[in-house]
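Hi U.,

Before I forget, here's the chain from the pilot set. I'm dumping it here mostly so it's searchable later in email.
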Amino acid sequence: MPKIMQVPMLMYHRLVPEAALQCVQGRDPYLLTESSFEEQLAYLSSKGYSTISLSDFIAHANGKDVPPQKPVIITFDDGNESDYTLAYPILRKYGFTATFFVVVDSISSPWMLTEEQIKEMSCNGMSIQSHTLTHSYLTNLSREQIEEELSKSKAVLESMTGAPVHFLSIPHGMYDNAVKKVAKETGYLAVVTSSLGINNTKRDLYSLKRIDVRRGISLSQFALCLQGQGMFWRKFMQLLKNMLKRILRIENYASLRRKLLQLK
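Structure:
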């Protein structure tokens, strides 16, 4: 029987240079400075962490491979241009890899990844996976629409990179058993969510947890999160937000959130 392994999976979104942070409108909690990201990768390197892919995680879960002593999975959602211009060079500097979940219809839009950037990253060891076709609220869609979001995004990315797309990141953190079922039927081997926590190799592969690395996090807080510690208050707040999403409906909640954070 394979050993049960604890694996933190970090979730990032968009990076900005330190000097540009003052020019950014709103209070987006998912906006992280380039220097903070590098500081975190330097910490991982100094403490002996090794990045693994989601394919590695599944192989370890099935007892088909020996995991490194201190594994970590790094992920980015959305497909922002900063994935290539800022995150990618820093990852390569430290010899790390990451999984980039891309919204297919946003490719080559302003401030988003281009097809050429995606191909280069894929050729250099980065994993390019699906964040759906249009970043829609999947729980609001019919089964046929969910299937289109998942299957078309998978096909486009596979054609673009020549590499398999086996993993899905849920937009807006909203999913249910119907979404999980369609993901499995359309060829996805695992689904990652926005639920806060650390996975072990016995976890349901279609509801994997992540640690969202937020703006303003200190290095000591980052270190605690890697151990699954210091997250009680954040988990409580996530439960509260999920309750509000159900009460207000997700579209109304998202609109209210944008107004409060002064986001466009």
